[in-house]
Amino acid sequence: MPLTVSVTGPTGEIGGSLIDALERSEAVDAVRGMARRPFDPAAAGWRKATYQRGDILDRGHLAELFGGADVAVHLAFSIFGDREETRRINLEGSRNVFEAAVDAGVERLVYASSVAAYGFHPENPQPLTEEAPAIGSSRFYYSAQEAELEESLDEILAGSELAAYVFRPCIVAGPRATMLIEQTVGAVRLGDPLPRLRRHVLGRVPLPRPTLPDAGVPLQLVHHDDVAAALAAAVEGKGPPGAYNLAGDGQILIADIARALGWHSIRVPRSALGATSAVAGRLSFISPQLEWGTALTTPVLMDTTKAREELGWEPRFDAAETLLQTAVSARETGVLE
Ligand SMILES: NC(=O)c1ccc[n+]([C@@H]2O[C@H](COP(=O)([O-])OP(=O)(O)OC[C@H]3O[C@@H](n4cnc5c(N)ncnc54)[C@H](OP(=O)(O)O)[C@@H]3O)[C@@H](O)[C@H]2O)c1
């Protein structure tokens, strides 16, 4: 039976690639996407997929989106917002989504959680398998929310027939996912609050290239098309429900990001970055974004054997290639001035 698939957050970094993958899937007959912004599906080349504006905080919008669907995919999230807004959308909104999926009687729910759900704990085994508990880090809002949500999902689904696939991707990057570079540029600007004024005064004189501190903490990356391939396999019901780690092969360092951007890096002891991150964490009432430093001070590497064996997932891009494509795209699209 051809599938009807409803997707929250189809306009985001992962959503665009997922819709493209579902457009190509012979198992999928129709796709419905919902997010808040105006969006023209025809201009994006969608043929099977339609788009409706709506908010996951509105149960009526969700009932309309999921009514008659076979599979619900939940990608709508607020990754970088203020604490109150992220809590409302991510916790209240996602609970709405999970409950609406149960009420609508969909067969499968595919949800993109994150590596952050495990939390950034030095005692975590490396690499982490899906057996590790998703307990989050209380000092990092995004990580705490992802862990809380996975717990809510278990509660909401208890006793229902719905099969849930929970994906835990590492940092997602690629030409359509330049958030990593936007945030790096943003962090550099935070340290240099007068870039516009300096540019105004110096005119076209090139500004010095930024230097990023590299504490030697390895990071994994996964390409958005590889994430989409894993989610599409779950949509088609290819493997058993459950949690799946997603990461491309290989690892990168902050020094590699600096090199890809044409910037400099300087090696610093992990303890120095840890201390900076602790201070930043205490200042997070100014901006919750400062809590993201936590992710750069404790390595959290994942084992992806389960997705490969159970879903037949084979990521096409490794971390180095994904970084390269992201940097090229950031340059072309003006993310990097
Ligand atoms: N990007 C990564 O590096 C990464 C890594 C690991 C896990 N993940 C997880 O993957 C999921 C998707 O991430 P992403 O990178 O695609 O995020 P994204 O680029 O920020 O996109 C978020 C999507 O959610 C929609 N949205 C936000 N608030 C909404 C609301 N109240 N109602 C309806 N739609 C709403 C947005 O559209 P509108 O703003 O127009 O509503 C957009 O389509 C998230 O759960 C994230 O935690 C992402």
3D architecture notes:
By secondary structure, the chain is α/β, with parallel strands linked by helices. It has a domain at 3-173 and 222-247 and 300-316: NAD(P)-binding Rossmann-like Domain (Rossmann fold, 3-Layer(aba) Sandwich). It contains 11 helices and 11 strands. The chain has helices spanning 13-24, 59-66, 83-104, 141-157, 179-191, 195-202, 224-235, 254-261, 270-282, 305-311, 319-332; strands at residues 3-8, 28-35, 49-53, 71-74, 108-112, 163-169, 171-173, 211-214, 221-223, 242-246, 264-267. The strands form 3 sheets. It has a 7-stranded parallel beta sheet, sandwiched between helices. The protein has a two-stranded parallel sheet with strand order 7-9. Strands 8-11 form a two-stranded parallel sheet. Helix 1 links the parallel strand 1 and strand 2 (28-35). It is globular. The mean pLDDT is 91. Bound molecules: NADP nicotinamide-adenine-dinucleotide phosphate. Residues 8-9, 11-15, 35-37, 55-57, 75-79, 89, 93, 112, 114, 169, 171-172, 177, 179 line the site of NADP nicotinamide-adenine-dinucleotide phosphate (NAP).
Percent helix, as a range, is 25-40%
Would you give the CATH topology of one domain? Rossmann fold
CATH superfamily of one domain: NAD(P)-binding Rossmann-like Domain
The outline comes out as: globular
Strand arrangement, largest sheet? 3-2-1-4-5-6-10
Per CATH, the architecture of one domain is 3-Layer(aba) Sandwich
Radius of gyration: 20 Å
**Structural class, from helix and strand content?**
alpha/beta
